Amino acid sequence: MSMNDPQWGRRGDDGPPDLDELWRRFNQKLNSLFGGRGGRTGGRGPGGARPLGGFGIVAVVVLLIWAASGIYIVDASERGVVLRFGEYLRTTSPGPHWHIPWPFESVEIVNVSEVQTVEVGYRNNVRNKVQSESLMLTEDENIVDLQFAVQYIRAEPENYLFFDRNPDLTVKQVAESAIREIVGKSKMDFVLYEGREEIAVNARTLMQAVLDRYRTGISVSQVTMQNAQPPEQVQAAFDDAVKANQDLERQKNEGQAYFNDVVPKAQGTAARLTQEAEAYKQRVIAAAEGEASRFDQILTEYKKAPRVTRDRLYLDAMQEVLSNATKVVIDQKDNSNLLFLPLDKLMQAAAAGVETSPVMDGSGSGASTAPSTTSESRRTREAFRTRNREGR
Questions:
Q1: Which helix (H) or strand (E) holds 348?
Q2: pLDDT in tens, 159-189
Q3: Is the dihedral of CA 177, 182, 185, 190 positive or negative?
Q4: How far apart are CA 76 and CA 73, in angstroms?
Q5: Where are the chain's structural domains?
């Protein structure tokens, strides 16, 4: 049968199936699925319309749209939480996914990378204080005005959605509670000055422990201390107290500097005196031991020759005595006047280059020269004259 034959396309024993019949069968199947009734004539109505076939097409389109509504895409910074009849089913990673559309399953998209911020004690600016949150009591019963911020992320989306009704509000309440606990165990000076960083670190650790116990799925990134000061009502008095403490520290530093200057010197002097005393001790001991050894040697020689040893000891003693005595020469022959010659003074004067003047005897002739008469030499001369008269 050729294609030009008018019978082509109709149902025959050896030809292709009729398109109209295929279409009727398809409509019958759709009608049977959706409760319709189809006959062999395809359910044609007046005028050749096919109402059941149009309804089937609409149903297919609706079905496709319904199925397509289950497609969703998760960004790289997000996670998808799939719920089946409100119950947690699974967590999907970034990328395109499909789930059974509503009312069977639903998807909650949670951003796990966005940093959230909670402000405690202020709003938007530290000048906009919320005193009901910022005023805290310290261990030494002082009040401080403290503002801080908490940054966190939603690290576990399934816990974030199901284990806490309002996780963001929980973060704020836990942050305030943790800070109050830490401040209540600290001194006021520690909170205001040297302990800010330590308080922030301890608050973050305590907050994370509490949030993990509540299974909020939140990870605290950072706690930042924005401001810490005494209340405005006592700011002036507190400044005076701070100034007094600064003066106290300055005086302590000055005293410590004086201590560092005086004590090492005193310790050095004490060490020097100790060393000198030790050296004197060793010197005296060595001298005594030497004298004892010398005495033993003299005693041995004395036993061998007593007379010679005594004479030698006498001569040595006189030599030692006279070596430190002043040399005076006196001429008393023929009852002549006393002639005083201080030889040691003359030698010293000659060494110093001092001019000398003649010393006259009783006849008026110059016997020798002598230095200028001093008060000491006159006293010595008068003493020797007195002794000479008494000897006569």
A1: helix 343-352
A2: 888 888 888 899 999 999 999 999 999 888 8
A3: negative
A4: 10
A5: 19-68, 71-111, 116-230, 233-324, 326-361+368-391
Cα separation of 1 and 14, whole Å? 9
Whether the CB-CB separation of 126 and 149 falls below 8 Å is answered with no
Instruction: Check: CB of residue 42 under 8 Å from CB of residue 26.
Output: no
Amino acid type, 202: N
Which of these CATH numbers, 3.30.479.30, 3.30.530.20, 3.90.1720.10, 3.40.50.300, describes 116-230? 3.30.479.30
Provide the CB-side half-sphere exposure for 156 (13 A, CA).
16
SS (H, E, C) 238-273: HHHHHHHHHHHHHHHHHHHHHHHHHHHHHHHHHHHH
Residue 15 is encoded by which pair of tokens? 């030809």
- What residues contact 201, with CB distance under 8 A and at least 6 apart? 223
| 194, 196, 200, 205 alpha-carbon torsion, rounded to 10° | 20
User: In angstroms, what CA-CA distances link 107 with 79, 209, 335?
Assistant: 10, 29, 150
Q: Which tens digit of pLDDT belongs to each residue from 105-147?
A: 888 888 888 889 998 888 888 778 888 888 888 888 888 888 8
Query: How many whole angstroms separate alpha carbon 131 and alpha carbon 121?
Result: 6
CB atoms within 10 A of CB 157: 19
Alpha-carbon span 305 to 208, nearest angstrom: 107
The CA-based dihedral angle spanning residues 21, 22, 25, 29, taken in that order and rounded to the nearest 10 degrees:
-160
Residue 66: Cβ within 10 Å count: 12
